[in-house]
Amino acid sequence: MTDIKSKVQGLEANIQARSIKDFIGEADNIYEALNVISKRASRVAVDLKLELTSKLDEFAVNSDTIEEIHENKEQIEISKFYERLPNPVLIAAEEFANGEISYRYKEGGEKKTF
């Protein structure tokens, strides 16, 4: 698994208008391209969530009382960093535009790189 955080550091977090022709590229049609992007975005979202959860678990304190609330500045900074990352759909769309996504149909069709 590549480090998603380092790849998206320079990526603009705001939405940009894009040409539909750019998305079609090597895909047979726009729906195939959007399907590939949406599936990759789902995977990126899961990966980021797992990574964030594992980092925040390092700060977890098991206590029996509710009154004990600890604010950890490192934990807050990690959370803010992940909040500032671009939306997973924007990350997947950028990967698609750069030709970094491979896709294959379940029926055993040829592997396509977009």
What this model shows, in words?
- The protein has 114 residues and is mainly α.
- The protein has a domain at 21-61 and 69-103.
- The chain contains five helices and two strands; from the N terminus they run αααααββ.
- The protein has helices spanning 4-7, 20-24, 30-57, 73-84, 88-97, and strands at 102-103, 112-113.
- The chain has a two-stranded antiparallel ribbon with strand order 1-2.
- Strand 1 (102-103) and strand 2 (112-113) form a beta hairpin.
- Helix 3 (30-57) packs antiparallel against helix 4 and helix 3 (30-57) packs across helix 5 (88-97).
- The longest helix has 28 residues, at 30-57.
- It is elongated and about 55 Å long.
- The two termini are 18 Å apart.
- The mean pLDDT is 78.
